[in-house]
Fold this sequence. Notes:
Layout: E1 5-17, E2 20-30, E3 34-38, H1 45-53, E4 60-65, H2 75-78, E5 81-84, H3 96-106, H4 111-124, H5 140-152, E6 158-162, H6 170-185, E7 189-194, E8 205-210, E9 213-218, H7 220-228, E10 231-237, H8 243-251, E11 259-262, E12 269-274, H9 277-289, E13 297-302, H10 307-324
Parallel strand pairs: 3-7, 3-8, 5-6, 6-7
Antiparallel strand pairs: 1-2, 1-4, 8-9, 10-12, 10-13, 11-12
Amino acid sequence: MSPNDAIRSEDIELDFGNGAGIFDQTYSVPEGTILGMIGPSGCGKTTTCRVALGLLTPQKGRITTLGRTPTAFRAEDRERIGYIPQQFVLYPRLSVAENAAFVASLYGMPAGQVRSRMDELLAFVELSDARNRLGQNLSGGMQRRLMLAGALMHDPILLFADEPTAGIDPVLRARFWEYFRKLRDEGRTLVVTTQVVSEAVYCDYVAVMRKGRILAVDTPANLRKMALGGEIIDVTLDDPDDMRRAMETLRRWDDVVKAVHRAPGGEADLHVVVDDAREWLPEVLNRLENQRPRIAIAGAAPLEVSYDEVFIKIMEQDQQRQEAQGG
Length: 327
């Protein structure tokens, strides 16, 4: 953890009973980054955010948000934070502009500043043309965008967004992440929860959650390496009969090759696990083709594994650990 962390959580626990709650949570969020919290429904993502916001009090552990204990926030501390909950919580019978102005009034913003800030934010979330439309007449995606604008009216430096892309189409989902990355590039810190595993690629750091616990926190690239034991080179042999010899050859090279196994569903394909697939690809090919007799290669390339597969692998590894411990 660093002094420049926007959030620092150490051994946090909040047990609701019957397995519900959050447990042993230690993580940090560096300033000016996006942390994505990814996990299935009910795994504790919302509770984790509410503890960091000071809306819930943990029973154990220590947490600071923007350098202060959240349950001891002063008004000026809360003014530095924005929050987008899962449900639409603004007023359905107020217009887009009226809702935005109402949120601004909660922070005592001057009228002149409200007008200029509103124009800027409605343009940012592409709601300028809908500024006079009632909240109840907005689509679900437009309501999400209005809540984002409302959460940003007071120009917070830390933003929590709880499943902001749930139930919206892929085009709008990509647009939301474009907004979030722009905010990050302006120096803001964001915590975004999601069940959409593929959204990990948009984050600087990802926390994988299961049953109230954070299984891992790292960059998307490092999570992939952690789940797979490294990076994978997908090799297709010219002759399937060379499979055994190729695997034996590479397994002997154990200072570089971490694992070798047949690719699922391929007679002549094998997966070679190394630290860096692009760095070691030429050497893997040389090692095979320099054998006598030569092992001919039909094709080889680094294998891009989806984050859905990475997520499943991390979940399976945790389940295996639990079973090994008798839990």
